[in-house]
Write a structure and sequence with these properties.
mainly beta; 5-stranded antiparallel beta sheet
């Protein structure tokens, strides 16, 4: 299937990413049924990726010095959780947002992001926005804005068997001054129906896994994936953080181990100007679900 006519194809996109290979093989962070990567730079140097361990529904982590070679760290970071979303606070503490019981909760680490204690309450409940997130909120991505406030983008779901994975999904947003109490922002940030070709079935109108990056000029770049529309990883930029477009294809589906839709991208920018993107997907010939490494080439 071709890229949607509403999407800028990778040949004309403002940037492009390609999977990293070594000895002809795709390079992975790990490939033991893990998903939903969240990559962060550590205050003391080096990098950490938090991922969801699908077998026991926990969040574990990997460490790296260069962004390419990763070693799993011992232990579990957060149990009974999925979709890690991590921010490093001004005092060096690390806060993780995650999905549990179909809502977004949080935990705090005071040892650099290894040991987390749950924070009381719910950060974003179901139905926070209305019908668009009535049944499920997840896959958050949180950034610090130039004015010192936080903005969270997240996936809201309304159950509907006509859609992919049984739900109509959109990207919504909320803001906070303290990272704990959130205020919803009016409107839908990205609706996959606006990306799909006219007449595309509901099964192709789905979106998930947003990852936000704040650019030096204050604009916000959002990476995500949609079913069919981008045939890979999508990206869109916003001047105000609310209205995004145009949508660009920045990584092609054919450049993945199983030549299947890559999911839940996370971007890590290095001080030397290089940047890596970590995405989920099956291994070659349908192997175990892993997290794979791509590099920005344009």
């Amino acid at each position: 299937m071709a890229v949607s006519a509403k999407v800028v194809p990778i040949a004309r996109a403002s940037e492009a990413w390609e999977s990293v290979k070594a000895g002809g093989q795709f390079v992975a962070v790990g490939r033991d049924e893990i998903a939903d990567a969240e990559a962060v730079a550590l205050p003391g140097g080096g990098y950490r990726i938090y991922v969801g361990a699908m077998g026991d529904h926990s969040i574990v982590s990997f460490a790296s010095r260069d962004g390419v070679t990763w070693t799993q760290e011992r232990g579990v970071r957060v149990r009974n959780a999925a979709f890690p979303d991590v921010v490093v606070l001004a005092n060096g503490d690390v806060r993780m947002y995650f999905q549990r019981e179909l809502v977004i909760q949080s935990a705090l680490s005071r040892d650099g992001g290894l040991t987390f204690a749950d924070e009381r309450g719910v950060r974003v409940p179901k139905g926070f926005y209305g019908t668009d997130d009535r049944d499920n909120v997840a896959a958050s991505t949180t950034v610090l804005l130039p004015d010192g406030t936080w903005r969270m983008y997240y996936r809201g779901t309304r159950e509907d068997p006509a859609f992919f994975n049984g739900g109509k999904m959109v990207i919504l947003s909320a803001t906070s001054r303290d990272g704990l109490t959130w205020t919803r922002e009016a409107g839908v940030r990205i609706d996959p129906g606006d990306i799909a070709d006219a007449g595309a079935p509901a099964t192709q109108r789905s979106i998930d896994g947003p990852n936000a990056q704040v650019l030096p000029d204050g604009r916000i770049k959002l990476y995500f994936w949609v079913v069919e529309g981008c045939q890979g990883i999508c990206m869109a930029v916003s001047a105000d953080g609310l209205t995004f477009g145009p949508v660009e294809q920045v990584m092609a589906i054919d450049d993945t181990p199983a030549r299947q839709q890559p999911g839940d991208p996370s971007v890590l920018a290095l001080p030397n100007g290089e940047a890596y993107l970590y995405y989920g997907g099956r291994g070659p010939e349908g192997g175990a679900q892993g997290i794979w490494v791509a590099k920005r080439v344009r």
